[in-house]
Design a protein that fits this description.
Alpha-Beta Plaits; alpha+beta; Uridine Diphospho-n-acetylenolpyruvylglucosamine Reductase, domain 3; binds flavin-adenine dinucleotide; Uridine Diphospho-n-acetylenolpyruvylglucosamine Reductase, domain 2
Length: 479
């Protein structure tokens, strides 16, 4: 553990309010959301300004202390969990939670790193705009974390990931300098795009202190539908049909296996299936209009679903009759991770393959995993239109010690699933990042050119390796 004399130096810098040392207060932030990684840290440092972050980084560099940047700690890959040996301090950005500006005129919000996503949603709505990125952890995930993981979510189909929504970034680099990149320039050709390097860097290259984010017009009218289909192939056919019929007003298109829906209905109080018919697969679809024109999104969605039914693509469908019902449909989608967690031990894979290959992958990879690891069950849900699903392999029924199961089977199942992803031309991380969970697998599967470039960039920015050690970059013996 890092010595008290070192902690005292940070207390002298930030004051007692800026340094948490009580082990009970640190504990919730030293393990990951899924409870798979457990780290130790002698302190959480909580600066309140970019200048304080720069001072912390400068002092940490002088003392040779590693820092683990942290926002809401909702990482799905152990990205914000400190090392188990206590050799790093947590650098929390949660106290930097001001929205510095929000302009409906410019369609731009400048947020400090600790702003919670749902707070940005509320502020944008109040100004007649919206920030078009949402995910299940929106009540805890912060702008700094979302930028640093290049988060995706349920609106990527139309609006893209954080890479497409971040107009500028302010960050403290490992030498303590402040990268002032908040100007939202439409054109900027000053060589390497430092902003894009910082997006998705998982805190290994810089501490994001603020970001300029692009807003979208508020939704004037929306339709949310729940559709029962026979297969992922039919779900993809439905997506293509709705895109043809409704253009880019299709904003959300989420696919869910019936078994996975059952977990939500079983574990999340107050949820019920939006359609009566039991179908093998379900699609949650949202159509948004920025203007209140006739016909509205509900009528247009109804027409499109009618056409899909005639073509035999759709088995049953319901369109939400009210905002409350629309929210209830979305609540099912947003509770999937939580209900899977409640269902029991599982290994989760956030993967992508080319969209056209995804329907076959969802069926074939699940069948293959179940056959190869008897007793397990596998299924997937998520963003089919992005070629990205969350593929889960659950422990055999009755498994009580999930940790022991993962210790025994985890590596083999990881390799099996990731090999299938690579064989299908895909990526082992679509939106959650690499963190510590996928680092070795990235090393095993990525090309020497990719790994070499990652290591070279890391060494150029952070030669002492003090920013989020052990995350993202494969270790020397990992490829
Ligand atoms: P943290 O978990 O605190 O950190 C994440 C990573 O970013 C770590 O590597 C950390 O070191 C780094 N970091 C954090 N803040 C900073 C900073 N200011 N500067 C530099 N580095 C920093 N993700 C998706 O993409 N799509 C989804 O649909 C989605 N759904 C989710 C649903 C649930 C229920 C949960 C729990 C998570 C989900 N996630 C999803 C994952 C997670 O919410 C995102 O990765 C999110 O971006 C993390 O934000 P955070 O503030 O919690 O970051």
């Amino acid at each position: 553990m890092i010595a008290q004399t070192i902690i005292d130096r940070f207390i002298a810098l930030l004051g007692p309010k800026g340094v948490t040392t009580d082990p009970d207060d640190i504990a919730p932030w030293a393990s990951d959301w899924r409870g798979r990684y457990h780290g130790r840290a002698a302190a959480i440092l909580s600066p309140v300004s970019t200048q304080e972050v720069a001072a912390v980084v400068t002092l940490a560099r002088e003392l040779g202390v590693a820092l683990v940047p942290q926002g809401g700690n909702t990482s799905m890959v152990g990205g914000a969990t400190p090392p188990a040996d206590g050799s790093a301090l947590i650098l929390s950005l949660r106290r930097m939670n001001a929205i510095r500006s929000l302009s409906a005129q410019d369609n731009l919000a400048v947020c400090e790193a600790g702003v919670i996503l749902s707070n940005l949603h509320d502020a944008a709505t109040a100004a007649g705009r919206r920030f078009p990125l949402s995910l299940g952890a929106k009540g805890s995930a912060t702008i700094g974390g979302l930028v640093s993981t290049n988060a995706g979510g349920t609106q990527v189909l139309r609006h893209g990931t954080m890479r497409a929504l971040v107009e500028g970034v302010e960050a403290v680099l490992p030498d303590g300098s402040i990268f002032e990149g908040l100007d939202a320039l439409k054109k900027d050709n000053r060589g390497y795009d430092i902003k894009q390097l910082l997006i998705g860097a998982e805190g290994t290259l810089g501490i994001v202190t603020a970001a300029a984010l692009r807003l979208a017009p508020a939704i004037a009218a929306r339709a949310v539908g729940w559709v029962g289909v026979a297969s992922p192939a039919d779900a993809l056919a439905l997506l293509r049909l709705t895109e043809r019929e409704l253009g880019d007003s299709v904003e959300g298109f989420e696919v869910i296996a019936d078994e996975t829906l059952g977990f939500v209905l079983g574990h999340i109080p107050g949820t019920r299936s939006p359609i009566e018919t039991r179908t093998p697969w379900h699609v949650l679809i949202e159509v948004d209009h920025a203007t209140a024109a006739d016909p509205g999104p509900s009528e247009r969605l109804e027409q499109a679903l009618g056409a899909a039914m005639e073509q035999g693509i759709v088995i049953d469908a319901a369109i939400a009759a009210s905002e409350a019902q629309a929210e209830a449909f979305w609540r099912i989608r947003e509770s999937l991770s939580e209900s899977e967690k409640a269902q029991g031990p599982a290994l989760q894979y956030d993967i992508s393959v080319p969209v056209a290959r995804m329907p076959a992958f969802m069926i074939d990879a699940a069948d293959a995993a179940q056959a190869h690891f008897p007793g397990t069950t596998a299924s997937s849900f998520g963003h089919l239109g992005d070629g990205n699903v969350h593929f889960h392999v659950r422990a055999p029924r009755g498994t009580t010690d999930g940790r022991a199961w993962i210790a025994e089977q985890g590596q083999a199942i990881n390799a099996f699933v990731h090999d299938a992803v690579v064989a299908a031309g895909g990526s082992i991380s679509a939106e959650h990042g690499i963190g510590q969970m996928k680092r070795a697998e990235l090393g095993r599967l990525a090309s020497p050119a990719r790994i070499g470039a990652l290591r070279a960039i890391k060494a150029a920015f952070d030669p002492d390796g003090l920013f989020n050690p052990g995350k993202l970059i494969p270790l020397p013996d990992e490829g």
